Amino acid sequence: MGHISELGFSKGLVSYVDVIIWVFLYIKKAWRTDGVANYDLWYDCTQRNGGYNCRGTNDADWLQAVQALMVLATIFCLISFIFFLCQLFTLVKGGRFFFTAVFQVLASLFVMSGAIIYTVMSPEWKNENDTYGYAFVLAWLAFPLTLISGFIYIVLRKKE
């Protein structure tokens, strides 16, 4: 049993970090910022008198595509994490974590596509003072982590 828990922690660490990044991507509202206002995928928030005044974002087609891709990436990342936990206890000795790997790689492709669309299309909306926020950076960080995690699961074999 020690090998299973060691396997789950050491090789699944990238997945754990991935899930934490995905949670922060949805909690925090800073895909783009100008110091006073923060813009994310769903709301534009302005800070006034110590509080936030938020309104919904524009219904641009590209923004809806980014929203859909990020939601799909999150769902696939969570599904792969659940598959990993299930396969950790049900997979035969020497078996590979293919289902987990497939969902991780697909999640990475979704987040990469969403981040590319946001990078290419958002300059049309940016003012001179706007900068990309930390949630945007986290989205780009989530792509290689999720992809690496998927490749790790492809070569990973279960030990007894």
UniProtKB/TrEMBL annotation:
Coiled-coil features, chain-numbered ranges: none
Annotated GO CC locations: plasma membrane
Residue ranges crossing the lipid bilayer per the database entry: 7-27, 65-85, 97-120, 132-156
Keywords of the record: Membrane, Transmembrane, Transmembrane helix
Signal peptide range in chain numbering: none
Subcellular location: Membrane
Keyword Transport annotated: no
UniProt topology in membrane: Multi-pass membrane protein
Keyword Iron assigned: no
InterPro entries according to UniProt: PMP-22/EMP/MP20-like, PMP22/EMP/MP20/Claudin, PMP22_EMP_MP20
Pfam families registered for this protein in UniProt: PMP22_Claudin
Family under the similarity heading: Belongs to the PMP-22/EMP/MP20 family.
UniProt name for this protein: Peripheral myelin protein 22-like
Protein's organism: Cyprinus carpio (Common carp)
Gene symbol of the encoding locus: LOC109075394
